[in-house]
Amino acid sequence: MKNYIQAAAWSIIEEGFDPALHQISESIFSLGNGHMGQRANFEETYSGESLSGNYVAGVYYPDKTRVGWWKNGYPEYFAKVLNSCNWMGLQFDFGGTLLDLHTAEVKSFRRELQMQKGYLQRNFVATIPSGSTVEVQSKRFFSMANDEIAALHYQLKATDFTGTLKLKAVVDGDVSNQDSNYDEKFWDEVGKSRTEKGTFLTLRTKKTGFEVITGVKTIVLLNGKPLELKSSEERNKYISEELAVELQAGDVLDIYKIVTNLSSQNYAAAELSARAEEVLHAATAAGFEKLLAEQAEAWALKWAEGDIQIEGDTSAQQAIRFNIFQLNQTYTGKDARLNIGPKGFTGEKYGGSTYWDTEAYCIPFYLSTANQEVAKNLLVYRYKHLEKAIENAQKLGFDKGAALYPMVTMNGEECHNEWEITFEEIHRNGAIAFAIYNYVRYTGDQDYLKQYGLEVLIGIARFWKQRVNWSEDKQQYVMLGVTGPNEYENNINNNWYTNTMAVWCLNYAMEATEIVRAEDPARLAELIEATGLNEAEEFAAWTKISAGMYLPEDKNLGIFLQQDGYLDKEQILVKDLPASQRPINQKWSWDRILRSGFIKQADVLQGMYFLEDQYDLDALRRNFDFYEARTVHESSLSPCVHSILAAKLNDGARAYEFYLRTARLDLDDYNNDTEDGLHITSMAGTWMSIVEGFAGMRVRNGQLLFRPFLPQEWQSFAFKIGFRGTQFSITIRAGEITIFNAGDQISNISIFDEVYQIPTGETVINYQAAAL
Amino acid sequence: MKNYIQAAAWSIIEEGFDPALHQISESIFSLGNGHMGQRANFEETYSGESLSGNYVAGVYYPDKTRVGWWKNGYPEYFAKVLNSCNWMGLQFDFGGTLLDLHTAEVKSFRRELQMQKGYLQRNFVATIPSGSTVEVQSKRFFSMANDEIAALHYQLKATDFTGTLKLKAVVDGDVSNQDSNYDEKFWDEVGKSRTEKGTFLTLRTKKTGFEVITGVKTIVLLNGKPLELKSSEERNKYISEELAVELQAGDVLDIYKIVTNLSSQNYAAAELSARAEEVLHAATAAGFEKLLAEQAEAWALKWAEGDIQIEGDTSAQQAIRFNIFQLNQTYTGKDARLNIGPKGFTGEKYGGSTYWDTEAYCIPFYLSTANQEVAKNLLVYRYKHLEKAIENAQKLGFDKGAALYPMVTMNGEECHNEWEITFEEIHRNGAIAFAIYNYVRYTGDQDYLKQYGLEVLIGIARFWKQRVNWSEDKQQYVMLGVTGPNEYENNINNNWYTNTMAVWCLNYAMEATEIVRAEDPARLAELIEATGLNEAEEFAAWTKISAGMYLPEDKNLGIFLQQDGYLDKEQILVKDLPASQRPINQKWSWDRILRSGFIKQADVLQGMYFLEDQYDLDALRRNFDFYEARTVHESSLSPCVHSILAAKLNDGARAYEFYLRTARLDLDDYNNDTEDGLHITSMAGTWMSIVEGFAGMRVRNGQLLFRPFLPQEWQSFAFKIGFRGTQFSITIRAGEITIFNAGDQISNISIFDEVYQIPTGETVINYQAAAL
């Protein structure tokens, strides 16, 4: 755990330069715009430890799988997030001495991620080894207004240097992935050029053949007067420009890089070059300041929809904004081929970009804070992968249209290879089905089922049907050999969560069929034709399984059992686990973890969260008390669910405690791994803790419901919710909730158990919240 | 499955050259003498596909572990069997054209492994691309009389070639392992020299620093007259000699290589060179033919102890001799630092050399067919690794002297890294304890317990004590998260075999303590001091666990349950599994295998075999019928146990059927993997099928017992058994068993339930066998 980030309501601030923290900061101060992004590497030479990272969404490389021991069913190749061309590099050579903060004496240093306006700014004063001092101010951003554009303004003042400065501006595509399985480089050069519009470098990925062109227009001014750059070094996958200038002490250089990155995903390869010139030319014509102003406007729109304001706790305010900021940088929902990588554009760790995190944790955030299309595109993403999910299931021996979505994916193919996860952590299928339900429940967009959803649900139901088997011994259906959300148990039998979600999926698939039948029988006929669904036979089987599924429970304790045999374990509680033994995933051997009863993340409770209407508060309390006492929350995805359930159980203090565990996970480098990149998907869980936990928001019968409470550490919190074409502003203060209907239609909202009709532009206040 | 090996009672014969079978033959025709060995690579150049392999026992390299996903507890390095210096190479250059069977037209080709005398012979006639024809006969062996020596005689007749032949004799240490994790080479050169005694190349392993010197004296005769070799190419880790000779058609070249391989395990590194010269000089002085005669004598002694004769089935005769031959080539028992690698000297697959195979399958073979010291050395091997086994347990979180022997090892450290095997297949500890019991039962050498055995038993008992936990739910001790012998189930709870063996170990450790106390209380006091054994406390705990262990069973079916939940699986039988689906380990995904009820190898039945006195025939029959119907025998170690138990259940036909599955496993390349090397340890299982199965041999109360039957396909079978200083020859014919006491003392033997006193040199015949 670190504590070096300064609190500020709208900014992430680092004062002073500590090389030991640099890679953490490179992650934290990352920038992106959904289409591309970048770690907060320095523009100028840095010879110290750094993880260089530039990423273009959706561009991947199928790296050949490397495992210790092969298991049948493993994918032969993994789609890997690619490190791509670095357009940022600047080299400053002051009469033979490079500007390099690793060798310079850093007099002052400040980094600020300005989240309201969406830029990264850095100021420093440094004395290089030859004794000269420079003052630098750099500002850069990835445009949310035009996601093909990024821009940099780097201002350098040579305080006391007189002599020749050689400046080199680099576009470097000769990059590699740290996590390459066979130490290969993944890019080939297609071509490069330098015209008056800029320097252009086109690279092609090996095997996949994605082409990406990076165009950079570099402009240099000396004391406001333009200087001319000339061609410099060219080598494979590398192009640069340079100039030499005689500086006087006090001279100021302004360097602008206006950048575009276009990929063959969006343009024909043959057009990339012309299109890049065009885009770059237009952006250059607009100029840095205008682009920056557009950026601020674009972010203002995002914040208008998605901000959460917290009064009375700057650290909490900063943290939630950071999480919202990063979620928006990672995924904008414009492109249904993209998804929310667990590290976004902040690192390369974990091949692939899509986990069940998207469906289980991120969908609610995007549903409430963005256009409906954004969440829809996340669902369509899985729809487009349905065929590959069916192939994936076939590899494991399933047939007849059964679909198993991959644990981790980029293009629909599996990107992970631990048998106990890849083959067994199949509950992901349940989350993908539940997200369809969640989306329809929230938006009322039944049409989605017809166009896309039902086909996915049928594939998933067919998988569950084949994945269970009849136990002669139990005279019930069982599901053997699975790994539940709690990955501290592997290859277990009858995981309550997985079995419960499977039953739910079977029922929902049949329910959805009836919805489509009622709305559009012709479309249903089409779907039946396309999927070969034999309703009579398959539904009978699904119904039988749904009715006859074994769901382990302990009647004495009145709890559901996480899996068969869970009560055979030593029932040690987390409170009795010495601090010296935690986190157990670092302190204990894997087999000790597996044998223990400790739970990595919400499992039974995850199910009771998803399907909350099926369980009463007493059952929830018994299970919560039992499992919370055994849960170590060593997944960043865990505390938010416990927070929401604690709130539901009227335990505000614990709800707040669980919230704190996720809110500043990366800002405080809680798990000592922020240097690899940020935990993007768990950031959505933090948002959920506030909105579903503290504010108690739910959707019931097509309308919003709130059961709010105010954490006692705060004076108030407020957020906006987009719901079915209306936007509500919700403010919770001690003893009151204020809801402003910013939409153009009267809306009903429930607060606790009372229904309020809220006209547009009006508010309602309910004092019941004080009861908490 | 292949069928190209010709049947012969004493030989393995391949007629004709098929490059597609070459790598299989390289395995099958391998040679070794316990100290070193070699795949049957060609001496002359071969540019086709080949797996070159030369091995020196006990010389290993700790290769850095490479896994897909790291789990705490994995070893950081694996000891790997090393491919070492190739001393054999010969190059024949006939006026610019190399002799190379990959490019030549092979007119005739014959390979023969002469097992009675212990040599490999090859004859071929080939026409090289330039049109000349050569006749070659080569013979080589690794001396069992002096395990530091190997020798080759290569005779070449240039039928129709007239011109200059350039001959090069190579010693090549620039070799690598195919299974190197990071494509590194593992040897450095220490030095090389050429004297009149031979050429010498000394190599040192990286990291471990083993030094091995290879000395080769090459002698060349033209039509019986010596030629002189001169120095040739030298490069790093490579030395060669050459000569050029004018050949006339019909000339005959005889090339001898006399070879020594010495390692710093047996000599001070500084002495290696002098010692190698000495050994090589003596061997050269003796000459090839004398060495070959000594080899035949040494093998005659081995066969006198260990042969099995089968009348009426040449194929079976060949197979059992092949198995016995390879077992003797792999392990001679002279060196307690060595063990029985699963591939012996026939391949490099599987890092490490020691598995539970040694204790579970190989000990009985060596107990009966070799000096008592041989089996004892296998046990002492584990004694010497006790400290490392304690460290290994510590890595997994155990303490207080608990010992977990590694799954695979070379030097006592773990060499495997699948968590479900490495951490969980802990039943190996049981087999290691059982081997001590088995050895003492067979030899009567109680002294072993005192010197070595008890200390190992205490460490193992302590492990089991910590590995179980009390289940409040069951009110019994349970053992969670294990993998049993049946590796088609992973991370299961309460594997009956493991739990049963754990109980047995706890009891035997206490029993052994009493034996040592009775025999030598002072030694016991020493051991208590050394191990810190708190008898009162620890024995109380062990007794409690032994009495309170949960052993899953199904009372209705009257069977033990392989593990918790086994009956939840679909109970499909092997007979209903289509041939197209087998072997399931090639046809099915790993998760399908895990979920199925199919059993890879004997598990419950393995336990009923080891501890047979605890179970009556009815219980055995019920379990046998239940589990055999579900066992696919996809481990080479499985059928022998089923064979022995079928024989015990008076089902001779099935006993024979199971025997057939192992007997020719490698000769017929049953599993399509013989090219990687032979399945050495399962060869001992074949021996067990005959001796413990068909002959029904057991040790009871210090004497041998037989319950024989004759497979109806055979006319007779006969074998010798060394037992407590006596040797018995046993011959089983239809309706009769003949036992000849070749020892010098009267001995009691049971046949069925009758005890016979057999004077030395006399025989007894019992007709009861006819009843079968």
Automatic annotation (TrEMBL), chains A, B:
In terms of domain of life, where is this protein from? Bacteria
GO-annotated biological processes: carbohydrate metabolic process
* Glycoside hydrolase family 65 N-terminal domain span: 13-264
**UniProt-listed InterPro entries:** 6-hairpin_glycosidase_sf, 6hp_glycosidase-like_sf, Gal_mutarotase_sf_dom, GH65_N, Glyco_hydro_65_C, Glyco_hydro_65_M, Glyco_hydro_65_N, Malt_Pase/Glycosyl_Hdrlase
Domain Glycoside hydrolase family 65 C-terminal, by residue range, is 697-757
* Alphabetized Gene3D superfamilies for the sequence: 1.50.10.10, Glycoside hydrolase, family 65, N-terminal domain, Maltose phosphorylase, domain 3
Which residues constitute the catalytic centre? Answer: 487
What's a single GO MF annotation on this record? glycosyltransferase activity
Q: Where does substrate bind?
A: 356-357, 600-601
Where do the Glycoside hydrolase family 65 central catalytic domain residues begin and end?
A: 321-688
Q: Which family does it belong to?
A: Belongs to the glycosyl hydrolase 65 family.
What this protein is called in its record is Maltose phosphorylase
